[in-house]
Specification:
rod-shaped, Alpha-Beta Plaits
C-alpha cells in the first residue's frame, strides 16, 4: 500500500510529528547558518572592523587637532594683521593731516626747507578698504640734511615707502633741491586710528 506523505492537515499524530521534525530541521539549519555566518560577521571580521574604526577615529581626531591648530593660527594671523594695519596704516579722515605733520616735522628736524607738495590716492587692487596715497614733495637743504631726513622717514611709525628721490644741486652752492615721491596706505573705514 502506498504511503501518504501529505503532512497537512495534521490530523493524525504521525503527521504532527513529521511536521514538527521538518520545522525543527529548518530551524536548526537557520541556527547553523547564523552560527557559521553571524549577522554582524565572524569574530575575526568584527575585530577587524573594530580595529579599522579605531584607526579611523584616531585619524579623524588627528585631523580635528590639526584643524584646530590651523584655525588658531588663522585667528592669530588675523589679529596680527589687524594690529599691523592699525599701527602702520592711516585712517582716511585724518590721513592728509597726519602725513603732512609727520613729513614736515621730519623735514624740520633734519633742517630741510619744505617747498610744494601734492597728494593723490588710488584704490588698491583686490581691497575694498585700502587706498594708496602718493605724495610728491620738494625740499631744499644740504646733503647731510637729506640723509638725516631719509633716516627719520625710515624710522617713522607709519608705513612710508620711498618710491623715488632725486637731488639736484643749486647753482653755485652746496644746497640741494630734493624731489621725493612717497607711498603710504590709507584705510577707508577709518577703524585703524
Amino acid at each position: 500500500m502506498p504511503k501518504n506523505f501529505n503532512l497537512w492537515p495534521p490530523n493524525n499524530p504521525g503527521n504532527i510529528i513529521r511536521l514538527a521534525l521538518v520545522v525543527l530541521v529548518a530551524a536548526n539549519l537557520v541556527c547553523a547558518w547564523f552560527v557559521f555566518r553571524p549577522a554582524g560577521g565572524s569574530p575575526q571580521e568584527l575585530r577587524q572592523q573594530a580595529e579599522d574604526l579605531t584607526t579611523q577615529l584616531k585619524q579623524r581626531r588627528n585631523l580635528l587637532d590639526r584643524t584646530r591648530v590651523l584655525a588658531g593660527n588663522v585667528d592669530t594671523g588675523r589679529g596680527e594683521g589687524d594690529g599691523f594695519m592699525r599701527k602702520y596704516f592711516l585712517p582716511r579722515r585724518t590721513a592728509n593731516s597726519i602725513i603732512i605733520t609727520e613729513l614736515f616735522e621730519a623735514a624740520k628736524t633734519a633742517k630741510l626747507k619744505p617747498k610744494e607738495s601734492a597728494f593723490s590716492t588710488e584704490p588698491v587692487d583686490g581691497s575694498d578698504t585700502l587706498t594708496q596715497m602718493r605724495i610728491s614733495a620738494n625740499f631744499e637743504g644740504s646733503y647731510a640734511d637729506v640723509v638725516r631726513f631719509i633716516n627719520l622717514l625710515d624710522k617713522s611709525s607709519r608705513l612710508v615707502i620711498i618710491e623715488s628721490l632725486s637731488a639736484t644741486p643749486q647753482q653755485g652752492g652746496t644746497v640741494l633741491n630734493v624731489t621725493l615721491k612717497l607711498d603710504t596706505f590709507v584705510t577707508e573705514d577709518g577703524s585703524t586710528a
